[in-house]
Write a structure and sequence with these properties.
Elements lengths: L8 E4 L6 E12 L8 E7 L6 H11 L3 E6 L8 E6 L4 E2 L3 H14 L5 E6 L2 E9 L5 E7 L5 E5 L2 H7 L7 E2 L6 E4 L4 E6 L1 H6 L4 H10 L9 E7 L2 E8 L4 E4 L3 H13 L6 E8 L7 E10 L2 E19 L1
C-alpha cells in the first residue's frame, strides 16, 4: 500500500504573517512493550523539500540513535522512501528505525498490513503486527541484504576499545569480525562478566578505525554473550555520537546470521536477544536467521510503544 500523500501542515510563524512549513513528527520506543524502555526513534512525516544538511541537523536536534524522514516512494507500488540519520551521518540501513517507522505509519493508516520501504541499502519488506483490536503493536522486518563477512580482528583490538583484557574476548566460536546485512559492525563474543564491564575508550576507537577502516567511518562494535539461543548484547559507536545503543537491529541481524553460518547443518535459527540492560532501557529482540539460495538473511521482530507527537517547524 503506497502512502500517496504525506500531509504537510502549515501555520503562521509567530514572528509575523509569514507561513512556514510544519512537518508532523512522532516518537516511539522500539523493541519494548513498555514506555521509556527500548530504543527511542523520531519519525518525521514528509520533508522531501529538505536538503540532507537540514535533515542531519534535525536528527542532531532530536539527539536520538536515529531519526527517519518518510518521503513519497520512487516506485508507486512501494510504501515510502525512508531516509535514516543518526546523530552525525545518514545510514544505509538500521533495524529499529524500520520497525518504528512502520509502526508509526500503521497507526496513521489502519489498513496497512505490509510495507515496502526504499532505503539506500535496498528494499526492506515489513509485516505489521496488530493486537486483537487492530491496533499496531510492532513489526517484523527482513534485512535488505544477505550476510557478508569482512576481516577478522585480533581480540586485543576489542579489549583496547572497551577497556577489557584480551582474555575477556571469547574466540572459541569465531574471532572478532566485521559482519553486515546492510550496515557493518565488528562483532565479538565476550564472557558474561566482561559484557557488564565494557567502558568505551574513544581514543582507542579512533586508533582502531585508522587501522581497520570501516564503511561510514564509525567502527561500531557489537559485543555479546551467549546461553544457547538466548543472547545478551551491547553496541558501542562513540565515533558516530552513540556512546551506547539500547537496541540495535542492524547489528543483531548479522550476529544471528553469523551464528547460523557457523552451524552448517541447520537451515534456520531463532535467537532471543536482550540489550540495553546496563543503560536502564531494557530491549527485547527476536531474530530469525534463515538460509536461502541467495545467502543468509534475517527477520527482526520487535514491539513498539508510541510516546510523543508534535510539529517540526523549519
Amino acid at each position: 500500500m503506497p502512502i500517496d500523500e504525506l500531509h504537510v501542515n502549515q501555520r503562521a510563524n509567530s514572528l509575523g504573517d509569514r507561513v512556514v512549513p510544519s512537518l508532523p513528527f512522532y516518537t516511539a520506543d522500539v523493541f519494548t512493550s513498555a514506555r521509556f524502555g527500548g530504543n527511542p526513534l523520531a519519525v518525521v512525516i514528509g520533508g522531501d523539500t529538505l536538503d540532507s544538511m537540514t535533515m542531519q541537523a534535525v536528527a542532531a536536534e532530536f539527539n536520538l540513535s536515529e531519526t527517519t524522514f518518510v518521503l513519497p516512494p520512487a516506485e508507486p507500488g512501494h510504501t515510502a522512501r525512508v531516509r535514516i540519520f543518526n546523530r552525525t551521518a545518514e545510514m544505509a540501513f538500521a533495524g529499529h528505525p524500520m520497525i518504528g517507522t512502520a509502526f508509526i505509519l500503521a497507526g496513521l493508516h489502519p489498513d496497512l498490513a505490509e510495507a515496502t520501504f526504499e532505503i539506500p541499502a535496498g528494499l526492506v519488506h515489513i509485516r505489521i503486527e496488530r493486537n486483537a483490536d487492530g491496533e499496531p503493536v510492532g513489526a517484523a522486518v527482513t534485512t535488505p541484504q544477505t550476510l557478508t563477512l569482512g576481516e577478522a580482528l585480533e581480540p586485543e583490538v576489542i579489549a583496547r576499545v572497551l577497556r577489557l583484557a584480551a582474555g575477556d574476548v571469547v574466540t572459541t566460536t569465531h574471532p572478532p569480525m566485521i559482519a553486515s546485512n546492510g550496515n557493518p559492525y565488528v562483532i565479538a563474543e565476550l564472557t558474561d562478566d566482561a559484557l557488564v564491564r565494557c567502558s568505551p575508550d574513544v581514543d582507542a576507537f579512533r586508533d582502531a578505525l585508522a587501522a581497520h577502516p570501516q564503511e561510514g567511518g564509525r567502527f561500531s562494535v557489537h559485543v555479546y554473550c551467549r546461553h544457547a539461543r538466548t543472547l545478551r548484547a551491547r553496541m558501542f559507536a562513540p565515533l558516530a555520537g552513540t556512546w551506547e545503543d539500547p537496541a540495535t537491529g542492524s547489528a543483531n541481524a548479522p550476529l544471528a546470521c553469523l551464528l547460523l553460518a557457523l552451524d552448517p547443518g541447520r537451515e534456520a535459527a531463532v535467537f532471543t536477544i536482550h540489550q540495553g540492560i546496563e543503560m536502564g532501557r531494557p530491549s527485547l529482540l527476536r531474530v530469525e536467521a534463515r538460509r536461502s539460495a541467495d545467502g543468509i538473511a534475517a527477520t527482526l521482530h520487535g514491539s513498539c510503544v508510541q510516546v510523543m507527537q508534535g510539529e517540526l517547524t523549519l
